[in-house]
Amino acid sequence: MRLAQRRVLTPRTGSAVNTCLDRSQRAVRAACRRMQDRGLEALHGARVAIKVYRYQLELAGALGAGARPAELATMRRLQKEFGAITDLELLRREVRRYARRHPRRGRALTVTRRSLERACSRRFARALAAASRDVIVAA
After folding, report:
1. Over 50: is that where the pLDDT of 46 sits?
2. How crowded is residue 40: how many other Cβ atoms within 10 Å of its Cβ?
3. Quick check: 73 pLDDT over 60?
4. What 3-state class would DSSP assign to 72?
5. In the structure, what pLDDT confidence band is assigned to residue 109 with cuts at 50, 70 and 90?
6. What residue numbers bound the domain in which 90 lies?
7. Do the domain assignments include residue 4?
8. Distance of CA 56 to the CA centre of its chain
9. Considering the domain boundaries, does residue 1 fall inside one?
10. Distance CA 107, CA 33 (A)
11. Count of structural domains, the chain
């Protein structure tokens, strides 16, 4: 029988699962608070904390303990958004690095680089607002 089909946990195990979920939830909140203070440099830590919490929520749901569908949907959405911001930031860094190595060609990329910087800043501001609203304030 598959694990997802059994859905049998002792009360003690269910309590341990919920304790683990609560601990990870606190870690996500702390990581999002750090992101408010440190900005983009703290994004990776928040993304990792969200990923860990999301996977734990999925496992807990499969075990039949601690199902939190609204939180799971929020973690999926934030993880996707934080991933997109990370991709934009990496692209911006690569464009900047290329422009430094190839000054003549790099000047032509000035508009692209600035556009990437603005896009990254806007998305980060929106993601930070969403994390503040959905994770930090929801406590």
Report:
1. yes
2. 14
3. yes
4. helix
5. confident
6. 9-136
7. no
8. 14
9. no
10. 37
11. 1
Cβ-contact 92, 116 below 8 angstroms: yes
Would the pLDDT of 5 be above 60? no
Angle at 117 between CA 41 and CA 33, to 5 degrees: 30
C-alpha to C-alpha distance for 113 and 136, rounded to whole angstroms = 32
Supply 58's token pair: 């999925």
Q: Is 21 within a domain? A: yes
Under 8 Å between Cβ of 100 and 7: no
Read off the pLDDT band of 67 (50, 70, 90).
low
Contacts 24+ apart (CB under 8 A), 21-24: 21/53, 21/56, 21/57, 21/60, 21/66, 21/68, 24/49, 24/52, 24/53, 24/56
Q: Which residues contact 123 (CB under 8 A, 6 or more apart)?
A: 81, 84, 85, 88
pLDDT of residue 103: 86
88: closest CA among 112, 115, 60, 120?
120
Question: pTM for the full model?
Answer: 0.79
